[in-house]
Amino acid sequence: MLIRSWAVTVVVQYIFLISFTTGTFREQSVAVKGIVSCRGIRQPGAFVQLYDEDAAPLFDDDDLLGSVTADDRGVFCVRGYTTEVTDIDPYIYIEHNCGYEGLDQKHFFAHEIPAEFVVEGNYSKKIYHMGDIELLTRDAPVQHYERRTPVYDHRQFTKLTLHQQIIHCIPLYVAYKDYYERVSFFAKNCDTSFSRLTSNSNCVNTIERLDILLDYQNGNSLYNAW
């Protein structure tokens, strides 16, 4: 029984080898274009890979034909070619965490390329346009996710008056307005004893003298009173 099974295996492999060697190797290429999105928001930097699915996975893994990173608009265009006896079966592969944020796990998007977009040669001018690719699926565990982004104060990019600088840099100005109107600003580092009186560390480098608080102990008493 074992001998018969071994003989059948040898015959099958022999037939496969004959058909493989008698075939003609052909260069085949494909090009794909699309836009990667997650919850309708484009994904710059998404890594897109183009593979050829191997007909005999036991003998060889899927071949990587090309890869590309989506631009700042989430748009990508990836090309690739290979030499095969049989027709290739290309597909797009994108690994991502859309819908899996905070779960420390990845998901993937895969899409087969229609056979009519596979052409002869090593460069395809016939591009398969996929349009918008939404990575979020209905079965994803995280359907709603709000990404925290830093909020910048637009005032730091504009030139402020002396009065505005005082308000911005010294919160105690509200309680001690008369005192802080005697402040003078220079481009030197201020004494570290005043750093605790500022709400922004950048303001510390703009204060050179605060006449009413030259006595550090007096400064502490004013701060504690606030």
TrEMBL record:
GO cellular component: cell surface; extracellular region
Localization terms from the record: Secreted
Tree of life domain: Eukaryota
A Pfam family reported for this protein in Swiss-Prot or TrEMBL: TTR-52
Record keywords: Secreted, Signal
Family note: Belongs to the nematode transthyretin-like family.
Protein name: Transthyretin-like family protein
Origin species: Haemonchus placei (Barber's pole worm)
Upper classification of the organism: Eukaryota, Metazoa, Ecdysozoa, Nematoda, Chromadorea
